[in-house]
What we know:
Chain A is α/β, with parallel strands linked by helices. Chain A has helices spanning 22-27, 47-71, 86-96, 124-135, 153-171, 189-197, 212-217, 220-227; strands at 8-13, 33-40, 76-83, 101-104, 113-117, 141-148, 179-185, 202-206, 232-235.
Amino acid sequence: MSNAPHRVLLPVEILRGQMVPETIVETFSSVPVVLLGYHEVPDQTAPSQARNQFEDKAQDELDDLVTAFENAGGDVTKRLVFTHDAMKTFERLAVEHTCDSVLLLNPAPVLEDALVPIRGDVNVEHIARLVGSVVAGTDIEITLLHVASDDDDGRAVGEGLLEEATATLEETGVHRSRVTQSVVVDDDPLEVILEAADDHDLVVLGETQPSVRELIFGDASEIVAEQAVCPVLVVRRRYLEANGENGSNTEARVDGQ
Amino acid sequence: MSEEPPPDTRTVTEEATKHEEGTELERTIGLTGGLTIGIGTMIGAGIFVFPGLAAGEAGPAAMVSFAIGAVIALLVAVPTAELATAMPRSGGGYFFISRGMGAAFGAIVGISLWLGLVFASAFYLVGFGEYAVAVFLEMGIDIGNRALFVAGLGVIGAVGLTAMSMGGTENTATLQNAIVSLLLVILSIFLLYGILDSVGIFGRETVPEAFAPEGYFPVLTTAALVFTSYLGFAQVATVAGEITDPGRNLPIAMVGSVVIVGIFYVLTIFVATSALGTGELEQAGETAIVEVTREFFGLPGAVAILIAGLLATVSSANASILSASRALYATSRDALVPPQASRVNLKYGTPHIALALVGGPVIVLVATGQTELLAEVASFLHLVMYGLICVALLVIRREDPDWYDPSFVTPGYPFVPVIGALSSFGLIAFMDRLSQAIGIVVMVGAAVWYFYYARDVSLRGGVTDV
């Protein structure tokens, strides 16, 4: 496992009044953040056309955010992009800055506990280390959640995964007493995660491999991000392959040539 | 003043344009998207509107007319591609000419390009009206005054498209990709069957007739008429600033789209004239291709082509309206027209004034219902620009400014741009007198505007201010 610092891409829809909650600024000042101000324009409009008109205002808004992060002691890099396709922009910058996660904003009046759903097929250690880095210097409580499909083997495997995650968290300095482990048996993991997300202030979620079901109904992590009312930290897929090297170049560019 | 800094403060990467002050413009149109813009703009005219008209004028030799058009378009597309890779910026032809030859030429070309695209959009929408009327006729609904209905339905189409592009935030590019793919599939089936049929595989008699029943002069006038079928590659250049890996994708998209549609056009005329004969085609007019398909596949074929015709004419009109708005933006960025013209509406994110300045005149022109006149004026204004693009390449290459570093170099230089310029200007001579007169009036109007409004504008980042 490489010890490269975890880096978070934080897209902010600038010019549309999207706010970065203060709680997020405080919490995420513990990891390097790439602050991406973006403005999505429709196909009818040249991005340079929007830039001509809105650049100054956008730069000002972004600079205010940068100042907020710097005042909280954060390491922040800023980017401002006018784009037709925000997803492509996120992907490009995440690759360019080797960000292993993307924080999707939602209001967060308080940030006291985080939900971390853990699936069986991912690199548990990577997620746990990322969570550990983010919550360093805070009192945030962590709920590890695994949804098992059956009561026998599934539950046992789940408990093993969550124990592994707890141990890794401890290594990063998060005391066991801050961690709650929860294995739930249910056929619909998505529903369970969404329900649990309602009681938490932040969700940390691994991006999923697109299965056939997800190609039709959408990526599970996207669904959670859309429906959750709290911020969602999505850990990028290429960092999650169970035996994956940190920074392997497969899937580096989804939209690339 | 909303002028941009000269090119050297900008870094163009494969995926974005980075400005010195840290602002980036994402490039989001890939090779497929570029080809789609080119093909989508062109195919509505050449296949769904012109075959009947062209065959009526030139007989089976109309395929030579289309081939001449393709050759001229290629002779211009190659120099345009070189300029576009050196200056991958919004505005296309306007941008190259203004940077190569100065603000006066730039203003005239920019305004002519805007109005040329307005004429082209109106032409496509009259075609749309023809197809919509044909649909009514096919359903057995009797309409009284055909010309009135064509114009009326065209106007409805124009109003709808303008309103949609002003208020719409939907991803129109995805829709356009799907439409163009569907069209290419339908046309490939039609042509494959038609060619096999024409060479006698299915044993049906081909209509025998002289290749050029009217002689060879009409072949040239027809080439001038149908050149509107080749305007799309320049529209690729108007979005050059948004294309990924511009050094590679721009030349392929421009040259590729001309080659693809050129082949489709020539084969379509071959199949159409083999199946029906020019008399019948001429009588069927703008929707002749429907009758050809009916000959092969009966009613289902006719219905499929009617739907394809509606889609193709609308997608061509839509692409041209968006390009016209880009052309206005590029001229207003350089202060050649008032900056208000390209203001972006924050709520919808669209340049609503520019779109109104395109949609308004389109609606008026569609109401005239003059297919051939609209087509020729559109071609006139584009051909002038094409000729000047070739001249701009010659000027820029001779001046060889530091910033000029194209990643695609025109083969056969200087012959290709010289022949491209001569043939572009030459083709204008074969147009109808009235079309030439209107084209000249538009250009004189643009020149008057320049001297009245923009005489003291100096452009940054061109060879003329070095």
